[in-house]
Amino acid sequence: MSIHMMTGLKCVRCGSEHPLCPIYSCPACGGILDVVYDYERIESKWRRGEVEEDDLLPLPASERVTIGEGNTPLVKADRLARRLGLETLYLKCEFANPTGSFKDRPVSMGVSMGVRFGQKRIIVASSGNGAAATSAYSARAGLQAVVLVPESTPAEKVKQSLAYGAKVIRVGGPYSNSFALAKEVGEKYGMFNVTSTFINPYTMEGDKSVAFEMHRQLNGRVPGLVYVPIGAGPLLVGIHKGYEELKKLGRASAVPRMAGIQAEGCSPIARAFLENRSEVESDPNPSTIAGGISDGLHGYAQDGTYVLECIRRSGGYSDYVNDDAIREAQGWLARDEGLFVEPSSAVCIAELKRSLESGRVSASETVTAILTGHGLKDMQRVETGGEAPLIPKRAESLVDLLEQDSRE
Ligand SMILES: [Zn+2]
């Protein structure tokens, strides 16, 4: 049975095909399941001039649980580009989504499919952004949400999720523990798991809309490189799949090279790439200020291998940066361009600077970087670059202070 333009699910490892239903891995081999569309039907429809991006998503907009996700700004960042030594830099402002991160795209799709399948309860494991998104979209759909987050999740993200009325539970240890628990308990109690790694085949489809929008916003020009912060990496794979589909349907001239950037303290995919390995090994003890991408893939390293293969197929690369470089890049984005993002979003800019200096990336390259989450979501570790002094209501005090500043 097909739904909208989807015809079924296909295992990326063994190639076996499966019907559209609530399912989280290949029953034959345990591999990741990928959504297959009726591309012939879409192609003939598009050839008639009826081009709709929704044809490449699990459900049309009218059948989705939505609070206005997507259509985020693509900002040309000239001042930051000059600082980095790059001619053309675009920033996709995913923090402008309704709950403040790109996760609204996959979660909207996941919750919508849950409603479509008649599911009553939603469960998610998240490092925080997916938690807030799942809480909001479940509230919007009138469904109960159980949200598992690692103990290190910033208070802002926990409170945001609680505010939407979700049952938020902190799980001891790294993110992988929350992931394992959501998988086990979700299956046992028939809860629809919208964890936006690769476990729910429908969620990643929502990430493709980033590619469709960028393609429109750049008037059909394909960037040479697209930088994506990666934990498990579904956003990177989703953007790549989106461009591949546009190319297959004759709408895009090429598919960009994908740069998947990690934090040094949690870099299983980058290390596998740099060491030329064919398989990713999990990291059981990740540690970084970039909480949104602190996913050691413990127990599901195959997800990382899938992302690694996608990066290699695109002709791109993967690398990591340390926490100091991340903090510095977070400051550049805010002070050069007025874009306040969480640490995870800054990894791309930090790495891009290094690759421009080393010559890995040329200054004439057209680059787009995805700014995944808002700075307000993780305020404890932000480098503000200054204090806010307190003065009495006296003009001399203010003037003294400003003159002192101008002398410095
Ligand atoms: Zn399989």
Proportion in helices: 25-40%
How many structurally independent domains?
3
Name of the CATH architecture of the largest domain: 3-Layer(aba) Sandwich
Morphology call: globular
Order of helices and strands: EEEHEHEHEHEHEHEHEHEHHEHHEH
Enzyme class: lyase
Keywords: Lyase, Pyridoxal phosphate
GO biological process, one term: L-serine catabolic process
Pfam family, one: PALP
Helix-strand layout with pairing:
Blueprint: E1 6-11, E2 17-18, E3 33-37, H1 39-47, E4 74-76, H2 78-84, E5 88-93, H3 104-116, E6 121-125, H4 129-141, E7 144-150, H5 155-163, E8 167-171, H6 175-188, E9 192-193, H7 203-217, E10 225-229, H8 234-248, E11 257-263, H9 268-274, H10 301-314, E12 317-321, H11 323-337, H12 343-358, E13 366-371, H13 395-407
Parallel strand pairs: 5-13, 6-7, 6-9, 7-8, 10-11, 10-13, 11-12
Antiparallel strand pairs: 1-2, 1-3, 4-5
Helix pairs in contact: 3-4, 3-7, 4-5, 7-8, 8-10, 9-10, 11-12
Bound molecules: zinc ion.
Residues 11, 13-14, 16, 26, 28-29, 31 line the site of zinc ion.
Summary tags:
alpha/beta, Rossmann fold, 3 domains, four-stranded parallel beta sheet, 13 helices, globular, binds zinc ion
What's the gist of this structure?
With 408 residues, the protein is of the alpha/beta class. 39% of the residues lie in helices and 16% in strands. Helix 3 runs parallel beside helix 4 (129-141) and helix 8 crosses helix 10.
Structural overview:
One of its GO terms (biological process) is L-serine catabolic process. It holds the Pfam family PALP. Belongs to the threonine synthase family. Helix content is 39%, strand content 16%. The chain has 408 residues and is of the alpha/beta class. The chain folds into 3 domains: 58 residues; 202 residues, 3-Layer(aba) Sandwich (Rossmann fold), CATH 3.40.50; 90 residues, Rossmann fold. A 6-stranded mixed sheet has the order 4-5-13-10-11-12, with helices on both faces. A 4-stranded parallel sheet has the order 8-7-6-9, with helices on both faces. The model has no long low-confidence stretch (mean pLDDT 96). Bound molecules: zinc ion. Zinc ion binds next to loops.
